[in-house]
């Protein structure tokens, strides 16, 4: 009698879990796509900056005609390079971390500490995203430019900061959900970028 009453509950719980997992997989796939193309853009900008700096050195020392604004332009592009690729790096766990003490702890304790760290980081990055967006918007409103000619606009570079922070917070949020509820958020479908890319290639 008790099993008959519990069967619909288990069935509805499984259905809700399946829906949650499906939504998480869709969100993760979209996030992976955004991260990957922003990383491609970051790599392309790196190559462009290398060519730009090389051309400036040649113009300065070979032709005695330096390119105006090369320093300010490169500084603005570095910000875009870093923040466009920061979420993708987190998806691969490529950021530098000090885990000497944490690695020696029991798995359960280590898992709890990682969840706490991820959730605190999500909150921090979300707050930073909000305030950096306000700064970028203010730069756009007032028409802020660099201090020397050719007076590059500052807001495109500033806008890369909130974009990077919000994507990073979303990535860490998915990673935290996987640690909290691994059955609903499996690593192969929600967290592990390389596994998703492998499925995409084979299909």
Q: Got a strand count?
A: 0
Identify the overall geometry: elongated
Into which percent range does the helicity of residues fall?
A: over 70%
The percent range for strand residues is: under 5%
Mean pLDDT: 84
Structural class: mainly alpha
Main sheet characteristics? none
Straight-line N-to-C gap = 46 Å
Work out the radius of gyration: 23 Å
What series of H and E elements makes up the topology? HHHHHH
* Low-confidence runs of at least 5 consecutive residues: 1-7
Number of helices: 6
Give the topology.
Layout: H1 2-61, H2 70-91, H3 107-142, H4 155-180, H5 187-191, H6 193-202
Q: Could you characterize what this model shows?
A:
- Helix content is 78%, strand content 0%.
- The protein has 203 residues and is an all-alpha fold.
- Residues 1-7 have low confidence and may be disordered.
Q: Top keywords for this entry?
A:
single chain, disordered N terminus, mainly alpha, elongated, 203 residues, 6 helices
Quick recap:
The chain is mostly helical and 203 residues long. Helix content is 78%, strand content 0%.
């Amino acid at each position: 009698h008790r099993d008959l009453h519990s069967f619909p509950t288990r069935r509805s719980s499984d259905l809700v879990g399946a829906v949650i997992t499906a939504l998480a997989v869709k969100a993760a796939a979209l996030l992976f796509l955004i991260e990957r193309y922003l990383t491609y853009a970051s790599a392309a900008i790196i190559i462009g900056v290398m060519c730009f700096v090389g051309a400036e050195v040649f113009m300065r020392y070979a032709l005695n005609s330096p390119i105006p604004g090369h320093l300010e332009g490169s500084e603005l592009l570095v910000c875009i390079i870093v923040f466009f690729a920061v979420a993708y790096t987190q998806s691969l766990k490529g950021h530098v971390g000090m885990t000497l003490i944490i690695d020696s702890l029991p798995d359960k304790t280590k898992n709890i500490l990682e969840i706490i760290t991820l959730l605190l980081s999500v909150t921090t990055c979300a707050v930073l995203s909000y305030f950096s967006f306000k700064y970028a918007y203010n730069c756009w409103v007032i028409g802020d430019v660099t201090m020397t000619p050719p007076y590059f606009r500052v807001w495109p570079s500033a806008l890369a900061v909130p974009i990077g922070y919000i994507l990073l917070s979303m990535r860490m949020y998915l990673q935290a959900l996987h640690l909290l509820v691994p059955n609903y958020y499996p690593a192969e479908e929600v967290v592990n970028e390389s596994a998703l890319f492998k499925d995409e290639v084979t299909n």
